[in-house]
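User: Hey, quick favor. My workstation is busy. Could you predict this chain's structure for me?
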Amino acid sequence: MNIIWLTHGSWRIETAGQVLLIDPWLTGNPMLDESQHEPATAGATHLLLTHTHADHVTDILSLARKLDIPVVGQYDLMAHWEATEGIQTIGFNKGGTIDLEGIKVSMVPASHSNTMTTPDGPLVVGTEIGFMISSEGKTVYASGDTDIMADMAWMGDFYAPDIGILSAGGHFTMDMKGAAYAARTYFNFKTVIPGHYKTFPILEQSAQALIDGLPGVDVIEPEALKAITL
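Assistant: No problem, here it is.
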């Protein structure tokens, strides 16, 4: 399994012959040069969407059309897009688990907000979510944008993820100290990879507080487009 940071809150997971892109943000991403867009998305088989803020959803529809692959997300939005945008979708909801060619993806809660920008102002489209992704004998918790929440207790117990991809930049999500607290309180991760940081000055620039807060856990600071093989 390869986990590749596409910078900010965007990820590429290569596993079981499939390539999952989670919230791929290309257009306007200050950390990802245009020359990196093609290698970031090449060979993708599925697009997973956690919520509809611009730094997560901006490129979803264009990539779905260009790559001719389905968008995976909450049922209400997926059904709407399939009817109005003519794209392939796989819609489900919290508590549901789908099979993507042998990869099990479960939808779990997050604690954030979820609006889409329209000419008439913000539009609420479903709720914010995260994913538990099980493949190759491992389970990855991709938190999406979230704060610490009590739901993490049952999520950690029920799904028992060994890898955590945690949004931890602060301001819009939990920060590194908060992510460390969540990881050690609710989960038993072997590996933690922070995201949603460094992009803007307002966000945390280092994962040192996460590293310091998780002794005995392999905390890996990701590098853009560099595979973490687990």
